[in-house]
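>> Question from a student workshop board

For tomorrow's exercise we were told to take the sequence and the ligand below, predict the bound structure, and bring the output to class. My setup keeps failing. Could a helper post the expected result so I can at least see what it should look like? The ligand is S-adenosyl-L-homocysteine.
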Amino acid sequence: MVYIVGAGPGAEDLITVRGFKLLQQADLVIYAGSLVNPSLLKETKEGCRILNSAKMTLEEVMEEIKHGEENGLTTVRLHTGDPCLYGAIREQMDHMDSMQIPYEICPGVSSFCGAAAALEMEYTLPGISQSVIITRMEGRTAVPERERIRKLAAHKATMVIFLSAGMLKELEEELLSGGYNKDTPAAIVYKATWPEEKLFRCKLGELSETGRQERISKTALIIVGDTAAQKGYERSKLYHPQFETGFRNKKD
Ligand code: SAH
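>> Workshop helper replied:
Here is what the output should look like for this input. Compare the format with yours to find the bug.
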């Protein structure tokens, strides 16, 4: 059996209880070495084989999984954050399907949640934005033309941008040409929830300069949008005395 497990954003105690137990039971752990906190690996049992997938190809990972399965091992494929975002898990599941290897996914806390916690931020503020756009700049992986940052920026929703810390100048230009103005609040969150976490709040017009000064080029998320100021919102209807919900009657 193979468990695809989300390791969480960084802090070793931000893995789920289920993921933690699976890690303790595993005979083979293949972890995404570039971003998974290595302290999590201390939780594995004695004799557990541990491989760093940052040094492996998809074929090599699959070969190890197949070999493990033939020997009746419990395998944990440990991905950073939640595996559903930029985790390249579909191709692994397709390989496992073709080899009839059973698998299950255990979700994790994505770094975009870790970043919001670090910033003490609610992404969805009534009266400002009710949507979060998770996207990235194009890198080696192409981004469809219709999803270019400038097009998504036109919504002026809250945007959380992954995998783009090395392209802050281009990112800033794209966001500005899409319709945000230079004064739109923004933040760079470096290594959210890790001990070395750093937060930089700035205006969009200062984004690339802030990144340059602080030497941020990887393992960061960029948050942009009027919600980043966390001001000027309307209070929620959910907890408003004048509104009833299925759980609460109106109060005068
Ligand atoms: N599945 C992961 C994302 C993997 S893509 C998740 O759910 O978080 C890798 C990118 O995620 C990095 O380039 C960076 O943009 C972001 N990232 C991952 N962990 C991070 C962290 N702790 N702090 C800030 N950004 C992080």
